[in-house]
Specification:
It is a single chain. The chain has two domains: about 5-125 and about 285-305, 3-Layer(aba) Sandwich (Rossmann fold), CATH 3.40.50.720; about 125-285 and about 315-335, 2-Layer Sandwich (Dihydrodipicolinate Reductase, domain 2), CATH 3.30.360.10. It is about 30% helix and about 25% strand. The protein has helices spanning about 10-25, 40-45, 55-60, 75-85, 100-115, 130-140, 180-195, 290-300, 310-330; strands at about 5-10, 30-35, 50-55, 65-70, 90-95, 120, 145-155, 200-210, 215-225, 230-235, 245-250, 255-260, 265-270, 275-280, 330-335.
């Protein structure tokens, strides 16, 4: 029997990515879509989706649906997730899973009470360049790592990414959970705590807006100190015309620098002025891992989904700390257990 998926929100992320990923995974089937926008419901039907709903309660009442995928604007993720849990549906939510760590904990508790699987589409844990960076850090290819730089840099408004049928400017509106910190910074912060072995201990950050996003942020940059002494500089910027490398990893034996043009890390070891070694990341990204492991977990509850939502609490704690540090102008101490 196939695991039947119902998706809430048929926007750009679904029509361009989620639908194709479900189709790619054996044992997965996209049965239904729910969207409040008539044009998006028509698009889902044109793409061959069998059941199309205008209202969430109707879709949640469909007993044939096993998993609800939440792909709506960020502010609505938790509310929809709570309703899906009460309906007994397993849940996969787009990032950010919530707007704060407290909201995410509420969702985790609700899923546990309902006895359903809850996981998050942190697909960029399976980006090929990130996987290479993680290997460099964990295998100490440049020695003991002293510092890591990770950045997502672009220039321009995020409005053009969304569909025209539903408020494409929502990514730059605070009330919808917009802003580059939650939209793209969440990927980089999630990657950084997955990449390094230590626990985030302290954050000093600046979060700014007003260029593209009038009431939320289009620039976020911070320094994270981990409990083992490693320091990370993590930035998300919509104001960068000339980009720096996505990753730079600085160790006691040298440095690794990502090169997007050649799809490899260049390792500068010792006193060498030229790379002594390269680590390729030309292989495809494996975003389908999230769906493959979710299907396996639904069929056999002894198996675990790819993304443990408890690990995402750390990500949201970093988001909270960036905001608080920027607001107060002071560093923020993080406390609590380290969850991998």
């Amino acid at each position: 029997m196939a695991v039947e998926f119902g998706i809430v929100g048929y926007g750009a992320m679904v029509s361009q990515y989620h639908r194709q990923l479900i189709e790619k995974v054996p044992g997965a089937h996209l049965l239904a879509v729910c969207d409040i926008t008539p044009a998006r419901r028509e698009a889902a039907g044109a793409d061959g989706v069998e059941r199309v709903y205008a209202h969430l309660p109707a879709m949640l009442a469909d007993d044939d649906i096993d998993v609800v995928v939440i792909a709506t604007p960020s502010h609505s993720h938790v509310d929809i997730g709570l309703k899906a849990a009460r309906a007994g549906k397993h849940i996969l939510t787009e990032k950010p899973a919530a707007r704060t760590a407290a909201e995410l904990r509420k969702m985790i508790s609700a899923a546990r009470r309902a006895g359903v699987i809850f996981t998050v589409f942190h697909n960029r844990r399976w980006d090929a360049d990130f996987q290479a960076a993680k290997r460099i850090v964990r295998q100490k290819m440049v020695g003991d790592v002293v510092a890591v730089e990770a950045r997502w840099q672009l220039y321009g408004s995020a409005v053009g990414f969304g569909t025209k049928d539903f408020k494409p400017e929502w990514r730059e509106m605070r009330r919808y959970g917009g802003g580059i910190l939650l939209d793209l910074g969440v990927h980089m912060l999630d990657q950084i705590h997955e990449m390094v072995p230590g626990r985030p201990a302290e954050v000093f950050a600046a979060v700014r807006g007003g260029v593209w996003a009038k009431d939320c942020d289009d620039y976020a940059s911070g320094i994270i100190r981990f409990d083992d002494g490693l320091v990370a500089h993590v930035e998300a910027s919509g104001l960068t015309k000339v980009s720096l490398p996505r990753y730079r990893i600085i160790g006691t034996r040298g440095m690794a620098v990502s090169n997007a043009a050649t799809k490899c890390f260049e390792l500068y070891l010792g006193k060498a002025d030229a790379p002594r070694r390269t680590i390729s990341f030309a292989s495809p990204d494996r975003w389908d891992t999230v769906y493959r492991r979710l299907v396996a977990a639904v069929k056999d509850r002894r198996k675990k989904p790819a993304v443990d939502p408890e690990s995402v609490v750390t990500t949201m704690q970093l988001i909270d700390a960036y905001r608080e540090s920027s607001k107060t102008g002071r560093s923020v101490t993080l406390r609590g257990p380290r969850v991998k």
